[in-house]
Amino acid sequence: ETTETIEDTRTTGSVETTETRPAAVEVHGVHKWYGAHQVLNGVELTVQPGEVTVILGPSGSGKSTLLRVINHLEKPEVGYVSVNGEPIGVRRQGARLKELSERAILGQRGRIGFVFQNFNLFPHLTALDNVAAAPVATGKLTKPQAQGLARELLGRVGLADKVGAYPRRLSGGQQQRVAIARALALRPGVILFDEPTSALDPELVGEVLAVIKDLAGSGTTLIIVTHEIGFAREVADQVVFLDEGRIVEQGPPTEVLDHPEHERTRDFLSKVL
Ligand code: ADP
Ligand code: MG
């Protein structure tokens, strides 16, 4: 009887938490055009705090554009994105959306980490300074504080012995792990990954996926574009299949990957598996 009472309390507690905490990311009716070409066509997506979302889809389906819209590197013509309940790049004015200043947008972008396919490290900075640069540039930390944090984060991605190395002396897998530590340095609420392992030699993919899996296990909110289906099955809370700018299918990996409903999803999976 005592045990039952405790379980009841826990259930009630978790329901209340879910209701009161804003979603980590909400994409509200986003449409995006490049000239006459519509690249995103009414995308709606909700990512809960601590959740891992994997985005799949053929080349050209709009995956990178969707990540860039979430980070406001691209402005959608229709719709907007919220992070922790706060609209990114815009504010509501009655029924309309007004652009925020560049400065305000830069501040918001610091709360969203981005890891690119090609690492994009600063070639003239050591691993340590690559990770320490943003917290110093944004005035969040002093240089010694940022370097302390950078050491800690490089240790977390297994690179404690590479703090003084320049990117050209690191393997692709090591460079990408530095890039992940750099994304963590601003303590973002969400980290976006755009095909983080597709530029790597096959034998280096595992070390990067292991670091991402560790982040997933630590409760960081992650949105990952990848073609690594086995990885998606292991870490994803939800899998989203994007095709021609629309979400065709979404749900837990056991549904989308193992029992896809749509012909396009089945066709795509048969090509990448
Ligand atoms: P994915 O990441 O799924 O391969 P993208 O989001 O990169 O797809 O691109 C979606 C479509 O938008 C493609 O047809 C691409 O050619 C086009 N596109 C992407 N970026 C631009 C841009 N800056 N200007 C014009 N067209 C673009
Ligand atoms: Mg892409």
TrEMBL record:
Predominant place of localization: membrane
One of the record's GO molecular function terms: ATP binding
SMART domains attached to this UniProt entry: AAA (SM00382)
Membrane-related topology note: Peripheral membrane protein
InterPro entries: AAA+_ATPase, ABC_ATPase_HisP-typ, ABC_transporter-like_ATP-bd, ABC_transporter-like_CS, MetN_ABC_transporter-like, P-loop_NTPase
Gene3D superfamilies per UniProt: P-loop containing nucleotide triphosphate hydrolases (3.40.50.300)
Region feature Disordered, mapped onto this chain: 1-19
Keywords: Amino-acid transport, ATP-binding, Cell membrane, Membrane, Nucleotide-binding, Transport
Intracellular or extracellular location(s): Cell membrane
GO cellular component: plasma membrane
ABC transporter domain mapped to chain residues: 25-269
Protein name: Arginine ABC transporter ATP-binding protein
Family (UniProt): Belongs to the ABC transporter superfamily.
Pfam families noted in UniProt: ABC_tran
Database matches in PROSITE patterns: ABC_TRANSPORTER_1, ABC_TRANSPORTER_2
